[in-house]
Amino acid sequence: MTDRTARRDAAAFTPRVLAELLRENARHPWKPPAAGPTGALAHDVAHGLDITVALGHPRRVPEDRLRLLLDAVTPRSLRFFGTDLTGVQLRAQDLDWSLGEETPVYGEAQDLLLVLFGRRLPPGRLNGGPEGHRVPPTLVA
Q1: Is 39 exposed, middle or buried (0-12, 13-18, 19+ CB in 10 A)?
Q2: Percent of the chain whose pLDDT exceeds 70
Q3: E strand or H helix at 98, and its extent?
Q4: Mean pLDDT of the region 58-82
Q5: CA–CA separation, 68 vs 40, rounded Å?
Q6: CB atoms within 10 A of CB 12
Q7: What is the H or E stretch that residue 47 is in?
Q8: 103-107 and 98-100: which strand pairing?
């Protein structure tokens, strides 16, 4: 929707008008709630992935955004999302990142981000786990 809206606006307005519209909103007093700009990015990335994963769309979140969000995970955020990593270490297959201890569970970084945000993934998106390469059932749908 955002892409369609941007393309519609780009077709409807001149570059000068588009620049003026951006300037008008540059000092808007709205600020992202709770976790500031990183929280706002997390919100957009997670909900975008909620949609694309469910549809089987091969969306790729840029690595710089993934790293920022993965590095921002805290015990408090895990509790907020109800994510229990007891006995599990999440390890990204596509970049150098891991979190947790004990038995590794492997997946793409953006899938692991969804797990950290309390989402359950479709089967086959993660591998590994404590029971003879079984992914813990709390991590998959």
Answers
A1: middle
A2: 89
A3: strand 98-100
A4: 94
A5: 12
A6: 9
A7: helix 36-55
A8: unpaired
Rounded-to-10 torsion of CA 75, 76, 80, 85 = 10
Q: Alpha carbon 130 to chain centroid distance?
A: 25
Which residues are CB-neighbours of 25 under 8 A, at least 6 positions away?
A: none
- Torsion angle of C-alpha atoms 100, 102, 105, 111, degrees rounded to 10: -10
Q: Are 111 and 125 in contact (CB under 8 A)?
A: yes
Residues near 120 by Cβ (< 8 Å), separated by ≥ 6? 138, 139, 140, 141
The pLDDT value recorded for residue 133 is 41
Helix (H) or strand (E) holding 18: helix 15-25
- CA within 13 Å, CB half, 20: 5
Report the Cα 53 to chain-centroid distance in Å: 11
Asked which of 59-63, 65-69, 83-87, 107-111 is least confident by mean pLDDT, the reply is: 83-87
Question: Amino acid letter at 123?
Answer: P
